[in-house]
């Protein structure tokens, strides 16, 4: 509607001799008495035309032709123009929500191909609550971008090569040897969580003590079983969290397929690699990094940066137009070197967006719980899901801007009260279902899309306007990669509906008014359900 009003205004401006002027806004006023939409165009033009803004506003209005959208136009204050929209327009909003399953889908993305990589936690242990925030954000962002009109593929990058994998295999093998000897002792180095002991027991059950005198074979078997066990655990936890991936991409495959060597050779040919102290370096300082980076060590082993370079080149070679990486906040220093590598290949670094997810603190019974992956003292995502469920976990992770740290209050997430945001929103949806059950028990024959002209109460109009606003919210959330805007919107819509429910008798003696209000309520439920589906949260019919 904002675009429609802008178009009407631009046509009127041309008639008063103003062309190509777009330095004004069209917005929904905070107070309903100021119309459905308002613009500051006359105030902005006053500086250009050097005339009184109210005089300009009157002239603009005089050239607005009769149409089916605008019912009346008024001038307010120093020169704001307020538009009051035809009732039919609002009725059509409800009809569209009720009848069109794709009403909230947009074409904003123009089907651009997006590769969204997120979580990608090192397979050295179970997912913890920090990974959960990145998982909720990444999965929801993928759903959001699809609704906004992008073609999205999701990917998990498995770091199954390098020193951490060596440490994983060594840790499991050491625990295996301790189990054979019958005595568990502290590990001085490596991963010390209970899950390492569990994997070692699995190795012992399958191979007995046969690996004790063959360290090389013992390491390989421990690493293979350990990687599979941990990846299975990660995938199971993510599935329970309603997070799935289109592709699981192995870092190791970049080496076996020769893609790392090929990527480095391209950089060498372009003059961006040099040798120093026996190592191979990338000239990342030429692209804004604080220092050059090693891609191949003096001992011949590759750094993680080398495989990351090859991985991002591979993403582009697969034809993706937009790359989005979701990383932890501790990877901030890594951004310039990755973007620099893309520039070195002759690609635009604007194709790559790196989103940093800030830390999350878990609060239980008023106390903050710390975690350390290597020490094994961490709270797993699985534990959190068992405590609060996937709905509350996802919603709580998503209701804050990913750029800000936040405290996850587990007691609040478990509460069944209006203080719990996810409960509050879901209850609004369930409340609509209870209205229909009540109507059915009274033998009220619901007729979809009828009697909408009877929705004349101010709160009813506010609800319709709020639902109409959802497309704009979806577009903004997709454009800024900020799924938390959806949670804010849903809480506002739920609040409006709860208010309406308490202040308005929906099931009345007048069946036509009842039918109109049930139509409105059903549209609200559909909107809430659609919004929750973007978040990956259920919309229960009973609570």
UniProtKB/TrEMBL annotation:
Residue ranges occupied by any Arginyl tRNA synthetase N-terminal domain in the UniProt entry: 3-85
Annotated InterPro entries: aa-tRNA-synth_I_CS, Arg-tRNA-ligase, Arg-tRNA-synth_N, Arg-tRNA-synth_N_sf, ArgRS_core, DALR_anticod-bd, Rossmann-like_a/b/a_fold, tRNAsynth_Ia_anticodon-bd
Example GO BP: arginyl-tRNA aminoacylation
One MF annotation (Gene Ontology) recorded for this entry: ATP binding
Motif ('HIGH' region): 121-131
Ranges where the DALR anticodon binding domain occurs: 425-543
Protein keywords: Aminoacyl-tRNA synthetase, ATP-binding, Cytoplasm, Ligase, Nucleotide-binding, Protein biosynthesis
Protein EC: 6.1.1.19
Catalyzed reaction equations: tRNA(Arg) + L-arginine + ATP = L-arginyl-tRNA(Arg) + AMP + diphosphate
Short name of one Pfam family: tRNA-synt_1d
Keyword ATP-binding carried by entry: yes
UniProt-listed CDD domains: ArgRS_core
Keyword S-adenosyl-L-methionine (UniProt): no
One GO cellular component, as annotated: cytoplasm
Cellular compartments annotated: Cytoplasm
PROSITE patterns listed in its UniProt record: AA_TRNA_LIGASE_I
PANTHER family for this protein: ARGININE--TRNA LIGASE, CYTOPLASMIC (PTHR11956:SF5), ARGINYL-TRNA SYNTHETASE (PTHR11956)
Protein family according to the UniProt entry: Belongs to the class-I aminoacyl-tRNA synthetase family.
HAMAP family to which the protein is assigned, alphabetical: Arg_tRNA_synth
Subunit structure, as described in the record: Monomer.
Stated name of the protein: Arginine--tRNA ligase
Taxonomic lineage: Bacteria, Pseudomonadati, Deferribacterota, Deferribacteres, Deferribacterales
Gene: argS
């Amino acid at each position: 509607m904002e675009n429609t009003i802008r178009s009407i205004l631009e046509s009127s401006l041309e008639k008063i001799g103003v062309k190509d002027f777009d330095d004004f806004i069209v917005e929904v006023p905070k107070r309903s008495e100021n119309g459905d939409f308002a613009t500051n165009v006359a105030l902005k033009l006053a500086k250009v035309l050097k005339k009184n803004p109210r005089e300009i506003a009157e002239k603009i209005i005089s050239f607005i032709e009769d149409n089916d959208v605008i019912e009346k136009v008024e001038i307010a204050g120093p020169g704001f123009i307020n538009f009051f929209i035809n009732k039919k327009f609002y009725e059509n909003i409800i009809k569209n929500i009720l009848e069109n399953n794709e009403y909230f889908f947009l074409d904003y993305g123009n089907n651009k191909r997006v590769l969204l990589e997120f979580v990608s936690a090192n397979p050295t242990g179970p997912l913890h609550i920090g990974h959960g925030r990145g998982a909720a954000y990444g999965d929801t962002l993928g759903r959001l971008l699809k609704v906004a009109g992008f073609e999205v593929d999701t990917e998990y990058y498995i770091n199954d090569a390098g020193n951490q994998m060596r440490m994983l295999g060594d840790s499991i093998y050491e625990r295996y040897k301790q189990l054979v000897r019958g005595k568990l002792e502290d590990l001085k180095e490596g991963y010390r969580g209970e899950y390492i002991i569990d994997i070692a027991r699995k190795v012992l059950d399958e191979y007995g003590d046969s690996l004790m005198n063959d360290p090389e074979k013992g390491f390989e078997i421990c690493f293979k079983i350990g990687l599979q066990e941990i990846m299975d655990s990660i995938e199971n936890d993510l599935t329970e969290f309603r997070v799935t991936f289109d592709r699981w991409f192995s870092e190791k495959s970049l080496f076996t397929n020769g893609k790392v060597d090929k990527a480095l050779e391209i950089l060498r040919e372009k003059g961006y690699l040099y040798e120093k102290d026996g190592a191979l370096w990338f000239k990342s300082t030429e692209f804004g990094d604080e220092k050059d980076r090693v891609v191949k060590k003096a001992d011949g082993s590759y750094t993680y940066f080398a495989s990351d370079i090859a991985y991002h080149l591979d993403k582009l070679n697969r034809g993706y137009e937009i790359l989005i990486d979701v990383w932890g906040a501790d990877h901030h220093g890594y951004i310039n070197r990755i973007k620099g590598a893309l520039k070195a290949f002759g690609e635009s670094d604007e194709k790559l967006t790196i989103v940093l997810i800030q830390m999350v603190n878990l609060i239980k019974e008023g106390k903050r719980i710390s975690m350390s992956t290597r020490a094994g003292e961490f709270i797993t995502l699985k534990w959190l899901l068992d405590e609060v469920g996937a709905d509350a976990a996802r919603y709580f992770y998503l209701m804050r801007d990913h750029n800000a740290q936040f405290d996850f209050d587990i007691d609040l997430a478990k509460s069944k009260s209006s203080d719990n945001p996810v409960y509050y929103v879901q209850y609004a949806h369930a409340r609509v279902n209870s209205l229909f059950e009540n109507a059915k028990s009274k033998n009220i024959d619901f007729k979809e899309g009828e009697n909408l002209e009877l929705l004349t109460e101010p709160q009813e109009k506010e609800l319709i306007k709020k639902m109409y606003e959802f497309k704009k919210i979806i577009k903004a959330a997709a454009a800024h990669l900020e799924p938390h805007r959806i949670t804010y919107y849903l809480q506002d819509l739920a609040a409006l509906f709860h208010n309406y429910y308490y202040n308005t008798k929906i099931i009345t003696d007048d069946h036509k008014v009842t039918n109109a209000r049930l139509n409105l309520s059903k549209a609200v439920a559909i909107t809430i359900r659609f919004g929750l589906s973007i978040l990956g949260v259920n919309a229960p019919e009973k609570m």
